[in-house]
Write a structure and sequence with these properties.
Length: 186
């Protein structure tokens, strides 16, 4: 594989890693309501496992409330059951037509736990980035050994992978900084 293809492949893998970290961060609860906490909840409806967003309208009318309005009256109970089973730590009120999900006020201790969890996810993302860099650099070393590229080309390619990795780590650090600020905001 030529150097440019390896770099392009590395860039794609880095983008996927950053997207994964971003998605994981979106699942961390802050004091504010966000419909993204419901992304992974599946509802059994007519024998199918479906995301809530395919059965109801999700809205955030207040900072700590999500309203789930089922399109079909029968789906409300199935959604309620799935939310109870998901154990998201939300207050769930169901009046027969609309589900009201209330986010409890986060304590200082709970906020710190969420920050630690976010830091753990960020570190896992950085480890993944370093693994991508290592795999790519190993490929360059193999090309050098096979005399497919020169030592200068290998050095330039390794410098380029380091620059891509450093940029991606800075990106993850910025995502973490923003998430920590969001979590600690009262």
């Amino acid at each position: 594989m030529p150097v440019s293809e390896a770099i392009k492949d590395m860039s794609v893998r880095i983008e996927k890693t950053i997207a994964t970290v971003r998605k994981e961060f979106s699942h961390i609860r802050t004091g504010r309501a966000s419909t993204s906490v419901l992304d992974d909840v599946r509802v059994e409806y007519y024998g199918q496992q479906m995301p809530i967003s395919q059965l109801a309208t999700l809205s955030v009318p207040e900072p700590r409330v999500i309203l789930v309005t089922p399109w079909d009256a029968g789906a409300g109970q199935a959604i309620d059951k799935a939310l109870q089973k998901a154990n998201l730590g939300l207050g769930i009120g169901f009046d027969g037509k609309i589900l009201r999900l209330t986010f409890p006020e986060l304590t200082e201790e709970r906020r710190r736990e969420f920050v630690k969890y976010a830091q753990k996810l960020a570190e896992e993302g950085k480890v993944a980035l370093r693994n991508i860099r290592r795999d790519t650099n190993d490929g360059f070393k193999k090309l050098l050994k096979d005399h497919s590229i020169s030592e200068d080309d290998e050095k330039r390619a390794i410098d380029q992978t380091q620059k891509l990795t450093d940029d991606a780590v800075r990106n993850i650090d910025q995502l973490l900084k923003n998430k920590e600020k969001e979590i600690m905001e009262v």
